Amino acid sequence: xxxxxxxxxxxxxxxxxxxxxxxxxxxxxxxxxxxxxxxxxxxxxxxxxxxxxxxxxxxxxxxxxxxxxxxxxxxxxxxxxxxxxxxxxxxxxxxxxxxxxxxxxxxxxxxxxxxxxxxxxxxxxxxxxxxxxxxxxxxxxxxxxxxxxxxxxxxxxxxxxxxxxxxxxxxxxxxxxxxxxxxxxxxxxxxxxxxxxxxxxxxxxxxxxxxxxxxxxxxxxxxxxxxxxxxxxxxxxxxxxxxxxxxxxxxxxxxxxxxxxxxxxxxxxxxxxxxxxxxxxxxxxxxxxxxxxxxxxxxxxxxxxxxxxxxxxxxxxxxxxxxxxxxxxxxxxxxxxxxxxxxxxxxxxxxxxxxxxxxxxxxxxxxxxxxxxxxxxxxxxxxxxxxxxxxxxxxxxxxxxxxxxxxxxxxxxxxxxxxxxxxxxxxxxxxxxx
Length: 434
Hints:
By secondary structure, the protein is of the alpha/beta class. It has twelve helices and 26 strands.
C-alpha cells in the first residue's frame, strides 16, 4: 500500500536511526523556521523503534550491562514521524522507498532522502554465522551474554579479531569473568593501526586481565567447538565471538545507485549522491571523495559530524542556498579496557597519533563520558541546533587519477577491518564546522 504523510511541500525520508540518522534528523528539524516546518515532513525508517548504543555492545556481551537500547521517541525531534520497518528498495524514478514491516509493505514518497543505513558485523569467515556469536546488534550481544553465563569455570573462549573491537570485547569479558580462559586471535599484529607504545600498553593490560594473545593467527573457518587457522592449525574452545570485519547493507547497490566496491553509496564533497542530488548520505555506508574524506574512519566519531553536515546540505537545498564542503577532523581515539581501565590517544585532525595519551582509570572515565556524550549531543540538537561541533578536517588534498571521485579508506575486498570502526567521537568544539 502507499504511505502518504501529511500534505507538505518538502517530504524528507531518513533511512536509518543510528548516530548519523539521529543527528541529521534532529539538527535539520531543529534548524527549521516555523514557516519551513509547516511545509516539511520528516519520516525516519528504522528496523526497530529503538536506538542502539553500538559502542556499548561489548558491555552487553560480557554481562556488564543488561541493555543499551533507547526508545526513538525519547531521542528524535517531536516532529519526526517514525516508520518501523526495513527499507528494501529506493525507487529513484518514482521517488519512493519500499519499506517492509511486520504489518504491511509501504511506499514512502520523498522529495529528499538521507541514506544513513550504517554497517553491521561481517560473517565472511566460513562457519562464523553458524558456530560463533557475531555482536552486530543488541540481539547478538544478548545471545552471547546468555551463552557466556552458561559456561563452566575454565571454559575456553575465542575472540576472533585483533582490532579495537576485539580488544574491547576480550578485556570486558576477561574482567567480568576471570574464571574463563580468553584468547584473542589476531590475523596480524594486535591493533596494528596504533603506534607501538599504545600497542605495548594495550598488550600489558590484556595480559594483566588474563587474556592470551595469539598474533598472526588468521582464522579461516569456525567449526563446532573450535577454529581452523591458516597453516592447518586446529584449536578447540567452548565459545567463539567474532569481531573481525564490518559490511554495509546492499540497499544502494540493489537500488541502482552508484557504489564503490564495498557497496558504499558514493557521494560528493557536500554528501549528495553523485548522480542524484536529491539523495544525501552519511555514516558508515557512505564514501565521499578522497580529497575531503580520505582520512575518515568508520564509527560515530565520523557519523555524527557527517549527519550534522548532511542536515546543513539539506537545509541549503530547501532554501535554495549554496551548500558547504564537508570538513571533519579528529581529536582522539579511545578504547575501553573493561570497566576500570581505558586508553585515550590524542590525534591530529587527520587521525594520526600525537605523543600524549591517557590511560588507566582516567582513561576509563573519559571513555564513559564520551559514550554518554554521543547520545546526549544528537538529542540536544532538537532544541539547540548547532550545539554539537567538531574540528575542521586537514587541508584539502588534491587527488588525481583513478579513485579521485570516491574514497574513505579503501576496504579490503568487500569488508572493513574493525580498526576502521573505532567508535570514537571528538571532544573539542574549538573549530566549528557546523
